[in-house]
Amino acid sequence: MAFGNKNDQNMMSEINVTPLVDVMLVLLVVFIVTAPLLTQSVGVSLPKTVSAAPAPNQPLTLISVDAGGQIFLDRTPQTAESLATLLQQRLSQNADLTVQFEIDEKVPYGKAAEVLAIAQHAGITKVALQTRP
User: Where in the chain are the domains?
Assistant: First the structure.
């Protein structure tokens, strides 16, 4: 018993690509619809700025925290309590006091936040964070 078709025609060896094209078109439509949603961001108009003028030559108070977590006020080691007292004294002498923070990159975030909170509770409102260019 031989297998074959009724008309004794040769077998069709072509691939029907119509379903493949339909699938690709559906995928293309999905990507066209979802692409704008992925790039959506908050529309904010940022101000244009020019180079900042250098700070006036007023004395700065430098607070440093080394990699070990030791606090320094103008290169003198301090405890957290003595730092708060000294900052309040300096603020009472100069109401326009600017404090510059120099915190090592290896210092844990908690310690850096503690030192910034000490300055905030002392009443310091003008701060600068020193970084590397």
Answer: 63-129
Residue 72 bridge partners (DSSP):
64, 77
Round to the nearest angstrom and report the end-to-end CA distance of the chain.
87
Question: What's the rounded Cα separation, in Å, for the pair 73 and 115?
Answer: 11
| Each residue's pLDDT tens digit, 55-73 | 556 678 888 888 888 898 8
Dist. CA 71–CA 36, nearest whole Å:
49
What long-range pairs does 43-52 form, CB within 8 A, spacing at least 24? none
Domain spanning 63-129 has what CATH number? 3.30.420.270
Structure-token pair, residue 4: 């074959």
Residue showing tokens 């790039």: 39
Can you tell me the distance from the alpha carbon of 41 to that of 30, in angstroms, rounded to the nearest whole number?
20
pTM: 0.56
Spatial CA neighbour of 119 closest among 71, 69, 49? 71
Q: Give me 1's structure tokens.
A: 């018993």
